[in-house]
Amino acid sequence: MSHGQPAGSERLTTGSDLTDSSTSSPRWDLDRLVTELRISREETHSIRKDGVIHRPPSRDKLAQVISALTEALFPRHYGQYDLDGENIDYFVGHRLSVALDLLSDQIHRSALFVGDELIPGFRQPEAVELTRSFAAELPALRGVLISDLRAAFVGDPAAKSFPEILIGYPGMTAIIHHRLAHLLYGFGARLVARLIAEIAHTRTGIDIHPGATIGSGFFIDHGTGVVIGETAIIGDHVRIYQAVTLGARHFPTDDDGSLIKGDARHPIVEDDVVIYAGATILGRITIGRGSTIGGNVWLTNDVPPNNVVTQASLRNKVGSPNLQKS
What we know:
Blueprint: E1 19-20, E2 25-26, H1 30-44, H2 59-73, H3 75-79, H4 88-114, H5 124-136, H6 138-155, H7 162-168, H8 170-187, H9 190-204, E3 207-208, E4 213-214, E5 219-220, E6 227-228, E7 233-234, E8 239-240, E9 245-247, E10 268-269, E11 274-275, E12 280-282, E13 286-287, E14 292-293, E15 298-299, E16 308-309, H10 311-316
Parallel strand pairs: 3-6, 4-7, 5-8, 6-9, 7-10, 8-11, 9-12, 10-13, 11-14, 12-15, 14-16
Antiparallel strand pairs: 1-2
Helix pairs in contact: 2-4, 2-9, 4-5, 6-8, 8-9
């Protein structure tokens, strides 16, 4: 220990200490690295549009938006348990005010960051109007979420109460995020919607693109590893289990070989379908109403209504153009 240094203290290492003792030269060639990264960033591999640099949207702020909106939708479950008839509306109003102010700012910031004047929200008044339109849909959205909650209660024998599902089921968390993100996606706030979807993915392991259309009474049981693509369409009263993929089979390209964006490439799942764990359903195919898809099935063909598809049934029908009714 150096003379005068307090007992138990450690000397801080500074940049000047990071040298090779044999040559007394810097350990890292920072000047060269910084220069080469600048050249890559600004010239050879630039991905930024020219013009004013804007702040990106904040995932932390968007997480606050979702938290506040969820508290407004379900104030006694996610907000304050002791709310009563006299103060609950004040609480809901406050949480909505916080959420919508933050959301409007993030919508505006996202559009500026992308740098496209045609994106909704590029101008502040547009962002405010978009947020106002989004807010007007919240009461109807809550009604759909209640149908999802009831579907989970009916569909899972382990579920003992609505509160257990609402605050404890990852599938319910994911669908709350998705329904909010899907609204924003439809209004054109696509970067914000995508970030909200990724927040849900991080929290639950369930990856639903905000463009996917999902009917009422939707239930994801367990949920880890579920993937639902952008153009998927899911009807009412559909139940899926963990590790299910509703994905694309082919990625069409244009004459220059670039991927064509926005084409319908994910499955259509009609009403009252059950899809068991590990099933992989690919392409713009239709799973008919009332059908059941067994676990670990790989499916790339249409399924007529009221069919049961298993690995065994697929093996028995290899080469058949259509699945036969079970």
